[in-house]
Amino acid sequence: MEKKVAVLPGDGIGPEVTEAAVKVLEVIARRFSHTFHVEYGVIGGVAIDKHQNPLPDETVALCEASDAVLLGAVGGPKWDQNPSALRPEKGLLAIRKHFDLFANLRPVKAVPSLLHASPLKEEVAKDVDMMIVRELTGGLYFGEPSRRTADAAVDSLVYTREEIERIVVKAFEIARLRRGKVASVDKANVLETSKLWREVVEEKKKAYPDIEVEHMLVDSTAMKLITNPAAFDVVVTENMFGDILSDEASVITGSLGVLPSASIRSDGFGLYEPVHGSAPEIAGLGLANPAAAILSVAMMLKYSFNLDTEASAIEEAVNTVFEDGFFTADLVEPGKRVLSTKEWTDKVIDELDTQFVSN
Ligand code: NAD
Ligand code: IPM
Ligand code: MN
Predict the structure, then answer these.
(1) Where does 1-118+266-359 sit in CATH, by number?
(2) Of the listed 100, 129, 155, 247, which one is catalytic?
(3) Which of 92, 100, 201, 278 is a Cys-bridge partner for 73, taking CB atoms 3.0 to 4.6 Å apart?
(4) PROSITE patterns, alphabetically (predicted)?
């Protein structure tokens, strides 16, 4: 297979974790005889510094000419006081919107060898296996009006029926390939958008009689994610709720540093990125966990290129390295040696080589 992959490292730990992920992609290419043409572009703070634009036209053109995009992270204190249009985060929102990447898939699965780092009791966390399906191109992040004056500010939570329909259908389709359960999360006791959301879920579920659907309010969902996270299969929700709940869910399994995501539309094109941000306080120190970025490459192989065997090879290698007791600083047990980003990545690469020799 021959594919073009755009890589946008971004800010903070973005360059470190994408470098690790690209190395793993290169090993997959070599081992499975694929060709991935990797080209780099700028987004976020680095793009503001270079082009006074968090998403320059040439980056959009690069992504348009590619089959998939790998992104590190954007943002940092250097740009925090910038006006809204010149914030790194604006570049991320703009690329999601430009490519109509309405479905953000954030899998959260417990790995036995990481449970020591979970803030929850082992028996609560050990069977967690959920997929958060976050709507990504609507809601509060994009609704108009959005503006402020000195003493007032407004953001608008807007959803159309069509926007809700496509994400809900996506969630039902995903649930069919899993345990057949969907929790639709809203705030229908207060918000008009949530009432429409519920109506659409009720309508769409008629075509999926095999799927068990539950409506849940977002506040109690936040609570149940902690008390009984293993009860969730697919969680579908609007943009902002999904942002918050996915960070909450990420730590159940140990660290934000291991959670990948796929932002996709219907035709196979997708943007793959860790759920975590640019972690400016550890940038450049070799402390970043590259697992989320590496597992985002696995999601790219699976969702954009239909290379399931290659994707599983990466997931297996990552899990084996954890099982062998190798961790970066965010996951390490007291008294154990901390591996740097590069050392940990090399362990994954060694493991992929071992797999290949033994198969
Ligand atoms: P963050 O995710 O960057 O960091 C939260 C905490 O997790 C920090 O303690 C950090 O050190 C740790 N952490 C995150 N990723 C890690 C990794 N791979 N390995 C080890 N530790 C890791 O969130 P934040 O601190 O709220 O935000 C920092 C900046 O990142 C902000 O500018 C924010 O806007 C931006 N951000 C970007 C994205 C993105 O690009 N997708 C996502 C979230 C936040
Ligand atoms: C994420 C991030 C982004 C979001 C920010 C950086 C705009 O938190 O990808 O989860 O809120 O979507
Ligand atoms: Mn977030």
Answers:
(1) 3.40.718.10
(2) 247
(3) 278
(4) IDH_IMDH
